[in-house]
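Example 202.
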Amino acid sequence: PARLVVLLSGAGSNLAALLAAHEDPAYGARVVAVVSDRPDAGGLDLARAAGVATVVVRPADFSARPEWDGALAQAVRVFAPDLVVSAGFMRILGAPFLDEFGGRILNTHPALLPAFPGAHGVRDALAYGVRVTGCTVHVVDAGVDTGPILAQAAVEVLHDDDEASLHERIKVAERELLVTWVGRAAREGLRVEGRRALVGHG
Ligand code: GAR
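Predicted structure in complex with glycinamide ribonucleotide:
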């Protein structure tokens, strides 16, 4: 199976979905490690409970940004990933990381990019007043949520939604989308053609 390293900063509901999927050998991918910038990320506990290796690389432990970038790349390199999955990792990946893993990093974002990039995709969509938002799986490039899009799913905004209720419904769609497309990328191969990310011959 393809080797996945998951980067996360939060609760890890997307990680949980990947851990459930990888139990099936036909899935074709396995989470071999979880790397976090935060020692208190709930996703680390999910990983430990599943017997998956965890590493924390805290920015505060490094004198400057390039040192942290280097340490993050080193932490991931140890596990020789075929794909890196950013699933609620709330930091920008720097040039050293992209130079090494570029084209093999998928990110999940809780909005229909290019609308509402950044750290508050759900809040910003709600504030704008859109009636439909959703989630996006894309290949990471040097910009903030600007990389070639692999897949998207739409989620309707309800009249009485707040950020939490909307994010919860987006997360349901998001984990299914992420599991599907990480699996396809692992089994069929991921490539980028201009603005488009593709798997297999599709
Ligand atoms: C997910 O909705 C993910 O799309 C979002 O954080 C959540 C993490 O949930 N990521 C971003 O907003 C990145 N800009 P999880 O920890 O339960 O998987």
